[in-house]
Amino acid sequence: MNKITLFLLFLLTSLVCFGQSPRQIFQETINETDLRKHLSYIASDELGGRDTGSEGQKKAADYITNHLIALGISPIVKNQDGKMGYEQSIELYKNGWKDSYVVINGKKKVFFNDYFPVGMINIPVEKEIETVFIGYGIQNETTNDFHKKDLKGKAVIFIENEAKNKNGKYISSNADNSDWVGSSGLKKKQKIAADLGADYIFVISLADSDQFKTLNAERKAVLSRFNRMAIEKSKTDNSTANTTLPTFIISKKMASEMLGINQKKLDAFVESPSRTLKTKKSTIKIKSERGEETVQTSNVMGFLEGTDKKDEVVIISAHYDHVGIDEKGRIYNGADDDGSGTCALLELAEAYSKAKAAGNGPRRSILFLWVTGEEKGLLGSKYYTDINPIIPLDKTVCDLNIDMIGRIDKKHETNENYVYLIGSDKLSSELHNISENVNKETINFDLDYEFNDPKDPNRFYYRSDHYNFAKNKIPVIFYFTGVHEDYHKPGDDVEKILFSKYSKITQLVFATSWELANRNDRIIVDSNKP
Ligand SMILES: [Zn+2]
């Protein structure tokens, strides 16, 4: 290359960049087209809702990793084999049912299909037990289904609720209401059975077979919500799970098999319980073991080394997991939650890598951190801060956390140029002022502090990953555009993302982090607000 073309090239670049600071130049590399490209993959059905530890989440981790490699951003996690990588692998512990079944006459009944538990029942070793049928299980002035029944050490079987007579009144009282229906009725029946020494209860559901399938699915979904994951093995054992008599709801079909009768006979008895029902004595086998299984997942991160202040690190974070697929097979793509934060980080990493390649790299280092298990209780960020902070916490200047920035909420239906900021003034007044000033100089959005109010009942300050940094006195800003009708619903899809505002908020995060990474003095911690 000769001197004249070199001079022309110099002239050209200075013209293009005329009047623009390096911050502005690289901020503008963040754009709607790139965000849309990334999010269309991250929030696609192919990733199956990115449930913690799922194959879909692993695909997301691979996508992020490949992007970091392509950008030339450094790995910072030392793997067991001594090689450097982008993934901090985490073993989570998940409490749930393991081996669970009922065997009737040698036939195995399927848990959450033929029957389901009322609560968190734990029967760790197989029990063989005799059954006894007591009709509806009612005991009052006119009726006593428990009369002369030996329940001691047995599994007692009764029908749910109470039958009605021809006039539509409840049989035992001839009244419109009954104490023996619903969950309070079940509690009364459970109490009597427990007092009489029964060991287990099987309640015959009156639902038809389709309704019963739905009940099973619903119950499974409800109880699995209590199967929280944790980053450590649980200290409490599962033997405390049985607080009342272990109680299961069974279908009429399973009940007839237990009672050794034709289902039609049971149906007839359900209609008029005054007739006698000859049942066979039977012995069943039962097991419902609760235990812990491990789930393998990871935080993904990339490191961009700073220049003269490289030991101090600005973290930008987002969670890349979501809630997966529900019992009806619907995929929760989580485009906003938190596909928006996940892909914003991909763009931020790109902007910084371009700045560095052009000789404008930041003075402090930047850690791009995609955390796992947020939806299971902020577990990935908790693992990072509590167990293995790759960057020492005292070298961590701040955490800018992005969780849902692609939509609008009810309050802002007429103005999409806003973002909720949470936490900015809690630990550092300086951070708050910098954030305000940068916004004025750049996108000039309305910064809404409604959720920063400690009296706000939503308590969002405690509900995303930044909190694990804040609790360690590391200043944070949480960027958020609020909840909407598709929050944690299957409709949180990429088609509903407002890319223009999403792109601008991502630029704001870039500009704010740029200032924090390049200013002479590290921001100070001067308060501790709730
Ligand atoms: Zn989220």
What do these coordinates show?
It contains 13 helices and 17 strands. With 530 residues, it is an alpha/beta fold. The protein has 2 domains: 97-292, Glucose Oxidase, domain 1 (3-Layer(bba) Sandwich); 305-518, Aminopeptidase, CATH 3.40.630.10. The chain has a 15-stranded mixed sheet that branches. A two-stranded antiparallel sheet has the order 1-2. The termini are far apart. The structure holds zinc ion.
Salient structural properties:
530 residues; alpha/beta; Glucose Oxidase, domain 1; Aminopeptidase; 2 domains; 15-stranded mixed beta sheet; two-stranded antiparallel sheet
* Number of extended strands: 17
Radius of gyration computed on alpha carbons: 30 Å
Spans of 5+ residues with little confidence (pLDDT < 50)? Answer: 4-12
Helicity, in percent? 25-40%
- Ligands, ions, cofactors: zinc ion
Taken in chain order, the helices and strands follow as: HHHHEEEEEEEHEHEEHHEEHEHEEHEHEH
The span between the termini is 61 Å
- CATH-wise, what's the superfamily of the largest domain? Zn peptidases
Report mean pLDDT, rounded to a whole number: 92
CATH topology of the largest domain, by name, is Aminopeptidase
Overall structural domain count: 2
Strand content: 15-25%
The helix/strand class is alpha/beta
CATH architecture of the largest domain: 3-Layer(aba) Sandwich
Anisotropy-based shape = elongated
CATH class of the largest domain: Alpha Beta
